[in-house]
Automatic annotation (TrEMBL):
<dbReference type="Pfam" id="PF01497">
    <property type="entry name" value="Peripla_BP_2"/>
</dbReference>
<feature type="domain" description="Fe/B12 periplasmic-binding">
    <location>
        <begin position="58"/>
        <end position="340"/>
    </location>
</feature>
<dbReference type="InterPro" id="IPR050902">
    <property type="entry name" value="ABC_Transporter_SBP"/>
</dbReference>
<feature type="signal peptide">
    <location>
        <begin position="1"/>
        <end position="22"/>
    </location>
</feature>
<protein>
    <submittedName>
        <fullName>Iron transport lipoprotein</fullName>
    </submittedName>
</protein>
<comment type="similarity">
    <text>Belongs to the bacterial solute-binding protein 8 family.</text>
</comment>
<dbReference type="InterPro" id="IPR002491">
    <property type="entry name" value="ABC_transptr_periplasmic_BD"/>
</dbReference>
<keyword id="KW-0449">Lipoprotein</keyword>
<keyword id="KW-0732">Signal</keyword>
Length: 340
C-alpha cells in the first residue's frame, strides 16, 4: 500500500506538551489524587455516564486519530497497542514518532476480540466504524462482559433512531471533549487543557482572517467513491475544519458524520473548492484525475477552475492534527476567495 506525507502540525508550545514519552502528571488537586489512587472516575461519553473503577493501564486504540490523541496526551506508557491500516500515512516524521516506535502495532486492520485479549487490554478506545461494530459483536457491551472497559470516540457517537447515523456535537467540540475526558481519566488534566487552549488559539487566528458572508467559497469534501461519493456531514471533523477555514461545507445539512450522497446533489450545490482526503489504495492524484474527467462534474465550478486541495486522512478525522488542517486549508480558501 502507498503512504502519504504528513506535515508539521501544532504550535511549538503544544508540541512541547504533546511530545512522546512524557510521564503522567503528578497529583495536583483532588481529581488527580483520586486518579493516582485508582479511585473510580465517572465521565460522560456519548451522552451516558461511564464509570471507570480504576485508571486503565493497558489501553488499545483503533486507527490513527484515536491513537494520536493518546500520544498527544503523553499516554503511550498506558497503552498495550494499536490497530491501524498501513494506508493511513507515513508515520516516520510525525511529532509522535516515539510513541509509534514504543507501542505495539497489533493489527493492520481493525481491532478484534482476539488481539484485544492477546494484548491483555483493560480498555479499548475506538469509535463506531472506527473499530466498534455490530458485525462480529465488537461492541462496548460485548467487551464489558469480558471485563474490558471502553471509551467511544465522540465524533462517532450514534445519534439516529436506526443506530447508524453518527455525531452528537460540533466536531471540534468533540475533539476538546475527548481530550478533556481522557485528561480527567488519566490524571493529565493540565496537559489536556493546554492542548485544547493551543488548538482553540490557532483556529481562532485562522477564523479572524477568514472570508465573511457571501465571500465564503462553497466546499465539497471528497473522501472516495465513483458511483456515489463518500463525504462529510455536519458532525465529522471536515465540517468545522472547512467552516473555520472560511468555506461553507455544501453537505452540512446532513445530520451524520461520514456518509454517501449522490453526484446530482454535488452538481446542484456547485462547490467552488473540492477537498480530497488522501488515503487508501487510490491516490490523491488518481482521485483528482477522476474528478476532473468525470462527465457529470464538468460544469461544477471547482472542476472548471481546477480548485482542488488535498488533506491527509489524519487531518480530517478527529485527531490532534485538526488545527493544522484548519490553518492550511484556510490559506487556500483565502486565495480562492481573493481570486474570484
Amino acid at each position: 500500500m502507498r503512504t502519504f506525507r504528513v506535515t508539521a502540525l501544532c504550535l511549538a508550545s503544544v508540541l512541547a506538551l504533546s511530545g512522546c514519552g512524557a510521564e503522567v502528571e503528578p497529583p495536583a488537586g483532588a481529581s488527580s489524587t483520586a486518579a493516582a489512587k485508582n479511585a473510580a472516575v465517572t465521565l460522560t461519553n456519548c451522552g451516558r455516564k461511564v464509570t471507570f473503577d480504576k485508571v486503565p493501564e493497558r489501553v488499545v486504540t483503533n486507527d490513527v486519530g484515536i491513537t494520536e490523541l493518546m500520544f498527544a496526551l503523553g499516554l503511550e506508557d498506558r497503552m498495550a497497542g494499536f490497530a491501524m491500516p498501513e494506508d493511513k500515512g507515513d508515520l516516520r516524521n510525525v511529532p509522535w514518532k516515539a510513541g509509534y516506535d514504543k507501542v505495539k502495532w497489533l493489527s493492520k486492520g481493525q481491532l478484534t476480540r482476539e488481539n484485544v485479549l492477546d494484548a491483555r487490554a483493560d480498555m479499548v478506545f475506538a469509535g463506531w466504524n472506527y473499530g466498534f461494530r455490530e458485525e462480529g459483536g465488537f461492541t462496548p457491551e460485548a467487551l464489558k462482559k469480558l471485563g474490558i472497559a471502553s471509551y467511544v470516540l465522540t465524533e462517532s457517537c450514534r445519534n439516529g433512531r436506526a443506530g447508524d447515523a453518527r455525531g452528537i456535537m460540533p466536531p471540534l467540540e468533540a475533539l476538546y471533549t475527548d481530550l478533556t475526558n481522557l485528561g480527567k481519566l488519566f490524571g493529565v488534566q493540565e496537559r489536556a487543557a493546554a492542548l485544547v487552549a493551543g488548538f482553540r488559539e490557532r483556529i481562532a487566528a485562522v477564523v479572524a482572517k477568514a472570508p465573511r458572508g457571501a465571500d465564503r467559497p462553497r466546499v465539497f469534501l471528497y473522501d472516495s467513491g465513483q458511483e456515489q461519493p463518500l463525504t462529510s456531514g455536519r458532525y465529522a471533523a471536515p465540517e468545522q475544519i472547512i467552516s473555520a477555514a472560511g468555506g461553507v461545507n455544501i453537505m452540512r445539512d446532513l445530520k451524520d458524520s461520514w456518509t454517501a450522497v449522490g453526484w446530482e446533489s454535488v452538481v446542484e450545490r456547485d462547490p467552488e473548492i473540492i477537498v480530497i482526503v488522501d488515503y487508501g489504495d487510490v491516490s490523491a492524484g488518481q482521485k483528482r484525475a477522476f474528478l476532473l474527467s468525470y462527465p457529470a462534474l464538468r460544469k461544477v465550478s471547482a472542476v472548471r477552475n481546477k480548485r482542488i486541495f488535498v488533506l491527509d486522512y489524519a487531518d480530517l478525522v478527529e485527531s490532534p492534527r485538526n488545527a493544522s488542517a484548519v490553518a492550511r486549508l484556510g490559506a487556500y480558501v483565502r486565495t480562492v476567495a481573493g481570486g474570484r
